[in-house]
Amino acid sequence: MADLELVTQHIALLAHSSQHRPNDHQLPLSQWPRKVPLLGIDLPPPPERKNDAQVSAAQDITLTVKSLKPALTFTLAVQPTDSIQHIKAKLAAQPNAPPADSQRLLYKGKALADARLLKEYDIPQASTLNLVIKPGTTMPAPEQTHTRAAPSLDVHPPPPEPASPSLIPQVILSPTPAPARDGSRSPHRRTQSLTPVSLSLDGDTSFAAASDPPHHASTAPTTYHSTITSPEFWKKLHDFLQKEFTTREDASSAFEEFLVASKGELSITDIAKIRDTVGEFGMGGT
């Protein structure tokens, strides 16, 4: 009640006051409250904004792509956000590179999926990727640089004098037997003798009678083929590589290199038996 009486008295005092101000009344500037003084603190300038080219160059990763069969080496500048399919397309644009659909990229023996990004595999800067080309791929012909020949003067030498009949040389071509893989002469191959050819300086060529008719090489299987197609041989090789390398990925990568290099001697059935025995499987079981 005391507060209510105080407010009532104050309102009555204001009502009897002689000062009446309009609704748009403003105080003069001299009666305005003073502003709080600001402290003079030196602020550092804002950092310069990098353009998109500098940011892209800072994120680029340089990769080296190598292929053993055929022996090829490529250098690519990619970004961590690039997909493996996009990297294959960049590689296919390089000279003498295989098409993107016939490429298979490996990193430490592990195949890289097309739909995944490069940063998902945690591949550092200046790394090396292994390139395996699918069998039956037609490689583009190597590019040849054509240089313009310098003009030259045609100088015709004088005609040669006829040679004496006693100075006509004779050349007899006779091949040597091909050595076997162990260094000895193969028992299944016989020496094929070619027809002796007599060459004269006047351009005439005469053929002598063949002393021995040619014989076709035997198609009997060799010990090398029997050993290279044996799953036990690859099992021993895989155990040896696991002892020599410190990590399983390095051993698997070395095993894949040996197997890819020997595919010319192996059939699809031989490869399937070897992978079932060893336990190393590539992309698609190849």
Automatic annotation (TrEMBL):
One record GO biological process: post-translational protein targeting to endoplasmic reticulum membrane
Record-level GO cellular component terms: BAT3 complex
UniProt keyword list: Cytoplasm
A GO molecular-function descriptor: protein-folding chaperone binding
Predominant cellular place of this UniProt entry's protein: cytoplasm
Superkingdom of origin: Eukaryota
Subcellular location: Cytoplasm, Cytosol
Start and end residues of each stretch annotated as Disordered: 135-224
Domain Ubiquitin-like: 61-134
Protein's name according to its UniProt entry: Ubiquitin-like protein
